[in-house]
Structures
1.
Amino acid sequence: MTRPAGMSDATEVIDETMPIAAVVDRGRPAAAAADVSNGRSRFTRLVFLDVIRAVAAPLVMYDHFVSFWNGYDAPSPVVTGIDTLLRQPLRIEQDFGFFGVALFFLVSGFVVTHRATREGAGEFVVKRLLRIYPVLIVVVLFVSIPGVRELVFAGNLVKQITGFTILTNMTLANYVLIPQVVLVGVGWTLAIEVMFYVVLILMMPLLKRWVWAALCVEIAIAWAAIEFARDFGASFFLVAVSLGYLPLLLLGQICWAVWRQQIPLWSAGVFGTAAWLIYTWNGTRDMGRPDDGYGNTAALALLIFILLLIAEPRLRPTRVVSFIADRSYSIYLLHGVIAFPMMTLLRPILPPVLAIVCGVAVTMIAVELSFRGIERPAQKLARRLVRRRAPARSPA
């Protein structure tokens, strides 16, 4: 949606912005619906979540563009200044890329939990699959084209792309297989999202009745995955590496539970502490985190998330924020496979600033095509499929 979201039909808002947007009644954390018109419940889209998505996607882009710029002889004075004033003092991991990812994880924990408590398992699966996979499949096919992959991977060219490689990348199964062949660099976060969806499906009966019990089980799952990561073979270890980020999504879920008055604040403190300890403990287990920057970065992301959640009643939607937020998923997936080939081609003839500007421009054109041609149609298809599955209701 290009316009600021006001009071909108709940189904439309959910399907157009999931999994990282929310449809809950703003300013009313209780379970009551905000309004009922023509027999259909109406809710308000939370502005703070759009603000976070509109910031998180460009931060991930910035991280990757910095790595491109660093390939030139002269470092950027802007990047150097940002590093000196912000990134290094705050010990932000990477160039704000993981900060953006942590924000996305917190938002997903908040939003997708909300949907899991209001949808049946079938509806939940249909909507999540058609949200995640259509754009991912197109991106994987695009990267698999000879010529494109040479530009995308540059010196780290994938030597052989087979039908099996393409299939496993389309399904995200490549993140639990040895050897790992990765065609879409940001896909690792989607694998974590899908694992979170699976956990939520298993937890649905508890989430809809006793949120505290679901949190206990979910925290236990995260702990067990890390504790026994090396006990069941290489593929399980890869699953455990992904589940090591589950506590970040659970922190978003805990914020949702407090916001919806599903658990008291003191209980949120207990669960939040447990989730945080597991997340930081994982950083000491030699499971892909080279330093404690992942903890500092996630802590800052959580602080900003909570502050914006508290400020939600004072926030107002804007067209720019809504525009970027609605397209954040396509921005996230496409910038690496669109901007980088373009910038690589332009690198010999343009200075880095102009190469990046051209890369961003072409990426946003592709993002708009993706949003209008893939995301929206997939969401409409999800709505139709859900309606067909829904049992007929007798007249009141």
2.
Amino acid sequence: MSVLLQARNLVVSFDARGEGLFAPPVELQALQGVSLEMDAGQSVGVVGESGSGKSTLARTLLQLLPLTSGEVILQGENLAALSPQALRQMRRQVQMIFQDPSASLDPRMRVEHIVGEPLRVFEPQLDRAERRWRVLAMLARVDLSAQHLARFPHELSGGQAQRVAIARALIAGPKLLVCDEVLSALDVTLRAQVLELLNGLRVEQNLALLFIAHDLAAVRRACERALVLNLGRVMEAAPIDLLFRQPRHPYTRALLESAPIADPRRARARKTATLRGEPASPFDPPSGCVFRNRCPFAIERCALEVPVLRELAGSRVACHRAEEI
């Protein structure tokens, strides 16, 4: 496989108001040295609790948020070094599907214009008939039909709106599709359908898929590798089967043990989840390991030293005691 995307030591910080009415401004570290590499056609999941930096990572890869330091290399091009015009053309290769389809679709536009908009931007030479033919072909690929062309977003069901968002993202022929919590607004049946659709498109078009989700079961079905984030740091990175079979970081283990189980008998029988207490505040993160205040394996070293992400039996893990767990 050829390397499509390399994100190296990404750091993103914001000037933010501190917690409390009269708190002074603070620098909030949203990403702290995150690295990621993806090959063409590969699927990578990004998991973690709310506030872990998943959506920040997605928006940074698309250059929608500025980097404090680090670099994003797409098809050999450093995105930060591109001119605005070149960056606009490069964005054709990376498209994003957002969490809430009804909020990401322009309520004043019909489906035909929503899906066809990227063609007007990237292929302005197409006439109206050619553009409509391309839109119809893409709608068919996501299991929609010509009867949806004239509809407005409010006339679509949740599943139809998400399919329209997928069609809009794919019609320009990207190499990488970033999916930011695309299943969270859908019911169980629609989640399965959209997940099957995304997997089919990935294989069919050799499309790299960055899949950001809280739903660990969906990540397991959709992805080949996974990245586990907590307060902007990578806790663990591993092939998906290894991550679920033998999680090396206490945070990864706690996430897996906290995931809901459909079978009530299995849910009652499993061990109590080790994810205890409240997540640390990003305005005042713990010293050393950012998970230590909730980790049952924490020792003094965890408060004094930030663990380095290191290789361990096929995984990469940032934990001082990973061999003992």
